[in-house]
UniProtKB/TrEMBL annotation, chain A:
The keyword Electron transport is annotated on this UniProt entry: no
Pfam families linked: Bac_DNA_binding (PF00216)
UniProt GO MF annotations: DNA binding; structural constituent of chromatin
Gene this chain is encoded by: ihfA
Protein name from the UniProt record: Integration host factor subunit alpha
Organism placement in taxonomy: Bacteria, Pseudomonadati, Pseudomonadota, Alphaproteobacteria, Hyphomicrobiales
Family: Belongs to the bacterial histone-like protein family.
Listed CDD domains: IHF_A
HAMAP family: IHF_alpha (MF_00380)
From TrEMBL, chain B:
UniProt xrefs under SMART domains: BHL
GO molecular function: DNA binding; structural constituent of chromatin
Entry similarity comment: Belongs to the bacterial histone-like protein family.
GO cellular component term, pick one: cytosol
Name the UniProt record assigns to this protein: Integration host factor subunit beta
Quaternary state and interactors: Heterodimer of an alpha and a beta chain.
Functional note: This protein is one of the two subunits of integration host factor, a specific DNA-binding protein that functions in genetic recombination as well as in transcriptional and translational control.
Gene of this entry: ihfB
Length: 102, 98
């Protein structure tokens, strides 16, 4: 299955190909897209991108975890985590594409 | 924030661009991530996070209400792992571990 890793450079290339901007500006814009999403989440706001998915921030309370190697109990401090909830459209597209590839 | 608001904010920061172009940029980024996942590729965005696809093999499930056996077909689910920098930023710059 796949096996390649897509990075920022590929996203910049896609923007460069589709919109008539310079490579430098394409790279800046990709960074700004990620920054706007990150800043929003850091403020505690969720980000909903239709037909792609949503990024949500969840508040986790303190819980007891266990070191899987030693079995030792360790408290896990309360924290905020970010989760990605893929849209049904994206899930369907991925399943269709990969089922056909088999 | 929804996609149109994201486009709006980016357009405000880039007054030299048409709003239509900003829309194309946002879509190009999201499409590129989506297409990579459709190929089964991984998308690694340092500082932000990484998208990948996990395979869930077919299994025999059970209807929890009736206890009846049901066949669940193989499927692929998109997965996202938050990047280190993002994890820290969500917690006032403190790295609390995984």
């Amino acid at each position: 299955m796949g096996g390649k890793t897509v990075t920022r450079a590929d996203l910049c290339e896609a923007v460069y190909q589709k919109v008539g901007l310079s490579r430098t500006e394409s790279a800046d814009l990709v960074e700004m897209v990620l920054d706007e999403i990150s800043d929003c989440l850091v403020r505690g706001e969720s980000v909903k991108l239709s037909s792609f998915g949503s990024f949500l921030v969840r508040q986790k309370g303190e819980r007891i975890g266990r070191n899987p190697k030693t079995g030792e109990e360790v408290p896990i401090s309360p924290r905020r985590v970010m989760v990605f909830k893929p849209s049904n459209v994206l899930k369907q597209k991925i399943n269709q594409a990969l089922a056909e590839a088999e | 924030m929804i996609k149109s608001e994201l486009v709006q904010r980016l357009a405000e920061r880039n007054p030299h661009l048409y709003q239509r172009d900003v829309e194309h940029i946002v879509n190009a980024v999201l499409d590129e991530v989506g297409h990579a996942l459709m190929r089964g590729d991984r998308v690694e965005l340092r500082g932000f996070g990484a998208f990948s696809v996990k395979n869930r093999p077919s299994r025999t499930g059970r209807n929890p209400r009736t206890g009846q056996k049901v066949a669940v077909t193989e499927k692929y689910v998109p997965f996202f792992k938050t990047g280190k920098e993002m994890r820290e930023r969500l917690n006032d710059g403190v790295d609390l571990g995984d």
